[in-house]
Amino acid sequence: MVKISRKKITIIxxxxxxxxxxxxxxxxxxxxxxxxxILKGNVLVVDINKMSKVxxxxxxDFITGVLFTTNGGFKKIxxxxxxxxPSKKILKKFLPQxx
Length: 99
Description:
Oligomer: single chain
Largest sheet: 6 strands, mixed
CATH architecture: 2-Layer Sandwich
Radius of gyration: 12 Å
CATH superfamily: SepF-like protein
């Protein structure tokens, strides 16, 4: 595992096409980091438990907009934890690991 950006993200799996990254945002401001990773083609597990309810709603709203632009998708995999992928095809590929 490789940690980068002041413990905000942790790379779990790194492949030639994309990485599976664990992210625990604390503020809405962190949505920019998540959006950049989606646009790079990476898959993310995002745990928003540390966010306030208002910021979590804003975060999900913003990130679903980013996913719309990439034809991506997301799936809730636990309480306040989501799997985000830059395309629906990639989401289907990673989803069995979380079922």
